[in-house]
Design brief:
Helices cover 38% and strands 29% of the residues. By secondary structure, it is of the alpha/beta class. Strand 1 and strand 2 form a beta hairpin. The mean pLDDT is 93. The chain binds adenosine-5'-triphosphate (ATP) and magnesium ion. The site of adenosine-5'-triphosphate (ATP) has 12 residues, from strand 2 and helix 1.
Length: 298
């Protein structure tokens, strides 16, 4: 297990930021943690990295307790609020980080070059950081997080400052790290980004991890049946409304949430038995947005 959290609690005064969180990640997984502002995502990452001490529970990364710096040696971290020494150049900042990580002198240049290429800052590395745009600074922070080729990387909203092209580039970088077998822990509010990059998902709400597991398993729960039908009787509509199944309704027909093929067959049968013609039927994936909204509902 590369990441293991057992019954983590974190109080800030009386405020409970993480409540009884247990979680484990295997090597090579890309885990996306989703939840609203203030849900406890960043706190959990900091607890795992040993930057914040849990009030209760155990956190382990790379086989060491979070409090043991040896676990952190093979981890990279892009914080949500990153700070650089702005009077340094990008190159100098990466070199500073390389030395903090203890990268041997003979490997330093190669590591920095690789990071610069990956983050797309080549050509600007001799400029001072104070002259970088917000997005360039975020790229630099990402470069610093992966400089030492860590087995495990925590990315706390890595694309919050990036333009659409930059977001796609970071998605590619994550893909590249994933292909190299890196385990990635990603906090993000961008559902499409998470849907495209993550193998596993977690949903956190008010400090509680309410669900976690393989991405496909969540996506499967969010399929819908789009039907083009004749006019539907109010009784039947009420029946579906009461079960919270209606996704959309319009002149041409209705879109209903379904769990599986049998559910679809049952709905079509019900409608036909009411004497309403069904002209067309199609199964749709509702996407991660629907999964997320479902999870965050009371
Ligand atoms: N250093 C701190 N001192 C006191 N309270 C804190 C501290 N850091 C976080 N909190 C509180 O802990 C809770 C969780 O915050 P956290 O930053 O983990 O949320 P988040 O899910 O990362 O949110 P966001 O999406 O806005 O980044 C919030 O109520 C926040 O106010
Ligand atoms: Mg956060």
């Amino acid at each position: 297990m590369i990441v293991e959290a057992q019954n983590i609690y974190k109080y800030y005064g009386a405020n409970l930021a993480c409540e009884d969180i247990s979680l484990s990640l295997n090597q090579g997984q890309v885990f996306g943690l989703l939840g609203p502002n203030g849900a406890g995502k960043s706190t959990l990452v900091k607890v795992l990295l040993g930057l914040v001490r849990a009030s209760a529970g155990t956190a382990m990364i790379n086989g060491y307790r979070a409090s043991d710096t040896r676990g952190r040696q093979h981890a990279g971290y892009l914080p949500e609020l990153f700070r650089h020494y702005e009077w340094l150049t990008g190159y100098e900042w990466l070199r500073f980080n390389a030395r903090v990580y203890g990268i041997p002198a003979r490997e330093e240049q190669g590591a920095i070059r690789r990071a610069l290429e990956l983050i797309g800052l080549k050509g600007r590395e001799q400029d001072r950081i104070q002259g970088y745009s917000k997005g360039m600074q975020q790229r630099l922070a990402l470069g610093a997080a992966i400089l030492h080729r860590p087995a495990l990387v925590f990315l706390d909203e890595p694309t919050s400052a990036l333009d659409p092209m930059g977001r796609i580039e970071v998605r590619d970088i994550i893909g590249q790290l994933k292909a190299e077998g890196t385990t990635i822990f990603l906090n993000s509010h961008l559902l499409s980004e998470v849907e495209m990059t993550c193998t596993h998902l977690g949903f956190i709400r008010k400090g509680r991890l309410i669900a976690s597991g393989a991405r496909e398993d969540f996506m499967k729960t969010c399929t819908a049946l789009r039907l083009e039908t004749g006019p539907l009787a109010q009784d039947l509509l009420n029946y579906y409304e009461n079960q919270d199944m209606v996704v959309e309704r319009d002149e041409a027909g209705i879109t209903l949430r379904v769990a599986d093929r049998e559910g679809s067959a049952r709905i079509i049968r019900e409608i036909v038995e009411c004497g309403v013609p069904v002209y067309q039927a199609e199964t749709l994936s509702l996407g991660l947005e629907e999964v997320f909204l479902d999870m965050m509902r009371d």
